Structure formats: structure tokens, C-alpha cells
Amino acid sequence: MNESINPAQVVSAADPLADLKAALANRTAVEAKVTRLVASADKKHTVGARCVVLGKEAFLPASQIVAPKQSLPGKTILVRVTEVTAAPGKTPVVVSQRAVFEDFVSGVALGSLLAGTAGGVSDQGSLFVRTETGFQALVPQRELVDGEPVPAMGEAVEAVVMTTDPARLSVIASIKWARALRLLDNVVEATVTGPATRKSDGRQVGFHCCIAGGLNAFLPSREIQGKQPAAGSTILVKVKKVVPCEHQLVVSTADAGKKAGQPSRKDARQGGERKQPEQAQHDPLTVGETVEGKLVSLDERGFQVEIAGGVEARLDLNEVSDEKLDDQALAALVGTTQKLVVIRLNDQRSQAACSLKRLVLAGVGLREPLTGTLVAVRARDNARIVALGEGPFKLHAVMRWLDCREAVKARAGDQVTVFLNSVIQAPEVVLTQKR
Question: Are residues 173 and 241 part of one domain?
Fold first, then answer.
């Protein structure tokens, strides 16, 4: 079960329901040991289950049970306290398993990694991935890795979240695209499957490729170095961009075999590396790249940024810092040169959106350790808000309660060790304390 759960072992003599009331107020998930099922008066239906929560008897209504009912007796599951009463003749505590699953589905971020174990295969060939909460995410057959066997029951599985539906308690995940995230900035082999054309006018804009595991990739014309590849040929490419939720994987041959300081073929034909204006020497920008930019002006939305290479860039105010900066501090940044991370590009790469607060994540891979400061506990879902970064440019990241370990006991201002659990350009950066 979830190691971060630390149920109180001592019940207050003044109020024997104090711990349960605290769990109700904080919307905290707690462990429940299911003792037996409860049948209706006519013995035809199951109306719920009796369980023990924090040392007290509790009732779990059938409408709040998500797992198969007949499998519950003797098991320990996660529940959330929904009612605490001292009325005579009534079970003092009512709990819900569904509420825990709803919190899980609502809190999981698109593009974040989901760790669990294989829980079986459906008739359609989809894989169930069981998480620590007991919730089962679904990996459709098309999102499994081509050419590899389906993970065996109980085998550790890592998948990336593609879609969520809290109303249906549904999370669709992909093992294939979790593998793609691991390929970012790596050089791999790709098979060219054919030209890619623009729908509006039929103009060729690059090539479609296939990477081992059944990953489809796009090689833009601007990312091709040397002659055009032939359909069916195998080439080396560098993975430049991965956006799992959009099934987007962009590759480049320009950086795949290039050594540091090596002149391009065009320059080599002209007798070696030729001197060019500083702007023309800048390589095409990529999402996640760290660049230096001069903050040339400030308006009500943010900064206009000047980057070498003639690329127009913007730094919105909400990407400067998640901590309050007054007008004087913002105005003082005009004219300074700052390191920034690129978080979005338009199709022509002529305009870029940058972030100053996300610089702390540059070069940090998924599940790599970071040190942050606990800022607050979010009331609606009990998630921890953790500040990352030094100086005034702080990034506030979110860590769901179920992903906490020692942070459960931490107070505001305490330092905590966390791991990155989402791509840096995701709107909400998600953390975990579980590797």
C-alpha cells in the first residue's frame, strides 16, 4: 500500500473520532480493512461493506465501491472519510473508495508518468495497469510497444498519461510514448516511410519516419542535412521534441551525426568554416532548449525578448516567477540578458515563447531528483505546492498527496527532495517522491 499514509495509532481520549474528523476535513485518503460484505434485507443484493478505519468500524456503501465487491473481504484498500457522526444506532463512519479514485483521476496530469504493475489483459487486447491506490489505468493495444510481449501479470510498468475522464473514472495511458520520452535528445535509427505533405496545398514539408517500437515520427524539411532521404531507407536521427498527448515526435538529421565545431557541408565546400554575422550562426531553436535572451521591453503581458538568429520571443509575466514580484523588480529586468528555456515554437520557428521560472528544470530528466521548499497544501485536493529554484524566479510545482512520502509530515518552509514527473513545457509541473 501507499507508504506515505501514516494513520494515527493513538486515539484522543477527549474525542475518539478526532482522527477521523481530521481525515474528513483534510480530504485525506486512509487505509480501510474490509471485514465483510453487507447484504440487503432480502439477501438479494450487496448494499455495502463493513471495514475498520483508524481503529473504528466504518461502512462503505455499494455505490462507493469501485473494485469487484466479492474480492474485497480481507483486503486493505484506500478510502476517503465522507461522514463522521456520533448519533446513536448509526455506524459512526461512512467512507468512499470512489472518492479516492476521483481524486486520483482529477489530479493526474496529462503527459505525466504513471508507475504501476500489469493487472491483466482485456478481451480487446488492452492492458490494465494497477496503481498504488488500487486504480487501474488502461493501455490500449495500439499504445503497447510493437514487437515486444505484453507485460506479464504483476510486472512493473511505466506509462505516460494520454487522456483522463474523471466522470467515468478513466485514465488512458501509453507505454509506447513513455518509451518515447526516454528518447528525447538521443540519436536513434529511423526508417523513412514516405513524404509528408501539407493538406492545404499538397506541398511537401518533410518525411514520415518510423522508430523501433512502432513510434511514428516527423522529419521536417528544415531539419534535413544533406540530400533528401529515400523512402524505405534507414537513417540516423536525433529526437528533438516529444509531446505524447498529441502523438507528436519530431526528429532531425542535422544534429544526428554532427560533432562539436564541425562545419556544415556548405561551409566545407567553401573552404571551411566561414565567418557569418552572429545572428546567422544561431542553430534552429527547439522546445526545451536553453537560450540567452535580452529583455528589451515590458508591457502589461510580459517582456519582448531578443534572441540571436532573428527569432522573435516573448516572456509572459506568468513565466517569470510563481512568487510575487513588484512592478519595480519587473522594470529592473528590462535591458538585462537572462538565460531562458524555450517552451513553445510556431510552425516556422520564427516566434518562440520562453520561460524564466522553468529554467530550474532545464537538463533535468523525468524521475531525476530536485530539492525544493514546501510552500503550502492545496485545500481542494490536499496536494503539496513545492517551490523550485534559487533567487526570485521560483517555479511552483504540484505534488499530489498520494505521491508524497516524507513530505506528508513536512511544514511550510521545510526542504523536500522530489522527482520530476512531467515534461517541463506542461502547463502544470508535477512532482513525486516515488521513483
Answer: no
